[in-house]
Amino acid sequence: MTEHRDYVGAKMGMWLFLFTEILLFGGLFVLYSVTLGRYPTEFHEASKLLDVTMGTTNTVVLITSSLFAALSVAALQKGSRKTAELFIGLTMALACCFLVIKYFEWSHKIHAGIYPGGETLVQWEPGKQAFFSLYYTMTGLHGLHVIIGMGVFTWVWAMIRLERCTPDHFVALENAGLYWHLVDLIWIYLFPLYYLIT
Amino acid sequence: MNVDAGFMAPGGKSWIREWLFTIDHKRIGMLYLWCIMAFFIVGVFLGLLIRMELFWPGRDFIGPQTYNAVFTLHGVIMIFIVVIPSIPAAFGNIFLPLQLGAEDVAFPRLNMFSFWLYLIGGATALISLFTGGGAPDTGWTFYVPFSAVTTTNVSVAVAGVFILGFSSILTGLNFIVTIHRLRAPGLSWTRLTLFAWALYATAWIQVLATPILSITVVLIIIERLLGMGIFDPARGGDPILYQHLFWIYSHPAVYIMILPAMGVISDIIPVFCRKSIFGYKTIVGSSLAIAFAGSLVWAHHMFVSGMSDTAVMVFSLLTFIVAVPSAIKVFNWLSTMYKGSIRLEPPLVYALGFIFLFAMGGITGLVLGSAGTDMHVHDTYFVVGHFHYVIFGGTGFGMFAAIHYWFPKMYGRMYNRKQAMIAAVLLIIGLNGLYFPMYLLGLQGMPRRYYDYLPQFTPLHQLSTYGSWITFVGLALMLWNLVRSRYKGAPCGRNPWKAATLEWTLPSPPPTHNFDEVPVVTHGPYDYSEVRDDD
Ligand code: HEM
Ligand SMILES: [Cu+2]
Question: Which of A74, B120, B451, B474 has its CA 20 to 30 A from that of B441?
Answer without folding.
Answer: B474
